[in-house]
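Submission sheet (multi-component)
Chains listed below:
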Amino acid sequence: MDRKVVFKQRLLPYLLLAPQLLITIVFFFWPAGQAVWFAFLRQDAFGIRTTFVGFENFAELLADPLYLETIRNTAVFCIGVTAIALSVALLLAVLADRQIRGAGGYRILLIWPYAIAPAVAAVLWIFLFHPQIGLIGRALNGAGIAWDYKLNGDQAMLMVILASAWKQVSYNFIFFLAGLQSIPKSVLEAAAIDGARSVRRFWTITFPLLSPTTFFLLVVNLVYAFFDTFGVIDALTKGGPAKATETLIYRAYVDGRVNLDLGMSSAQSVVLMLVVILLTAIQFRFIERRVHY
Amino acid sequence: MSTTEATQGLALPAEAAPPRRAGGSDRVAHAILLLGVVLFALPLWIVLMGSTHDAATIGRGEVPLLPGGHAVENYTAAWQRGGAGVPGGRMLWNSTVMALSIALGKIAISIISAYAVVFFRFPFRKAAFWSIFITLMLPVEVRIFPTFKVVSDLGMVNTYAGLIIPVIASATATLLFRQFFMTIPDEFVEAAKMDGAGPLRFFWDVVLPLSRTNMAALFVILFVYGWNQYLWPLLVATSADVETVVIGMVKMIGSEANTEWNIVMATCVLALLPPVAVVILMQRWFVKGLTETEK
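Outcome: structure written.
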């Protein structure tokens, strides 16, 4: 798709593109290229000699039981966040959509968590679930349930999932509400006349018509859980206890920052790049086709 | 939104809804919605109330649900003294500079590159467009350390430039403007040419005013994105001069034993107020921006 009428200047378009392209090359392509290159290198213990080791870093990574454990954590975390954030948002959006007068009001009452930084969301949740000073954390301990997300790995995982999902619900809510409001009324009325009850109407008509929105949100939520929740984990658990909440991003950060292992950290970067490329490709493929039944 | 440049947003028809008939279970629906609203607001409420009590009350674990009498001193302490050695006022200033520069910078850089790609024909046009597009697949999280090394080689560690410039390119904003520019009628360009207006004049007098709504929508989304940055500032801004409020607040809870929780709560409120205010005040553009643009 190109415009028919354009300007003839030769130099100007390059000048207009220069800032964006310069930043893209210096801060995106060059570092990404280096990450790929470093992934095939290994430094000796003193950082003096660097040797090309081929796929050895990758082999070592995939043979590391801790890395496999991190992959499992990441899967649990991403699926948990996505499932909770999507289902709560869909429920609220369906209910708000019925109150046509109230929909706008509920929207404003539910969208503000979108503006909260993941790390700030984590701090808010500390005040709910901290075993000594948190409202619910204290109540749980008072009721005889040993609650301490700093000691118990499963509880820590639950905490980071809930805090991350809490923040994402409002984003999903906005999209579900917009999607619901664009479904033609006549379709639903026809079904009502045919005698379909409201629950049945939802699953046979509304939900399928909502599928493009749902699918889009599924990918966005997975990307969010994968990449944007670093702040939640860093503020709440720092990947602990005993690496129970260490995700792939967190591990790449720890290996590069704390352990200063450039080769291994780069190999992880390459793995992560493959994940983004996969997710982006899936998304654009389906956006083009606009999944619709 | 996200620190990831990738895959946010897509065009959705968001036109006004047809009125729908209210069912009999309206009350139940309202009750569940209100419960949702309360559950979502609860953590915010606790922090808001906690920030008006003294450290001992919170340390005892009383979790006050009503306001106390220490609001002024807590917020003063957070603003002047802060935690981890950086005054809250300083951190808020840093966050403001970072968020505004990122939002306005991304909009400026993207709108001119989209203009170049749409309104001109030149060699390597497609290549330029695709190389911008492909950065969607390279969020900062997957190239953290090499990017840090580039920034440190350029001497930009612990500067505003280091915080801002490496994240100021935006594939999504460029895609949005490009999409919008395609819809500007050819007649506008022809008329401008006939009047003897050059490309810069056409940009300034026609394209820029037409793009106002898109810019407002992008501004909300990008301001929130900029303010909420975490991983990148954590690496590149380690000195007190450039510490942002989100990072500073998390650092305050680092040493559990002697955390002044009331000051943390006050700082937390200061950290979340600006982006929440921008989203609520600009709600109309924000919803449009989310559902009609990408990121």
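Remark: The two ends of chain A are 27 Å apart (CA to CA).
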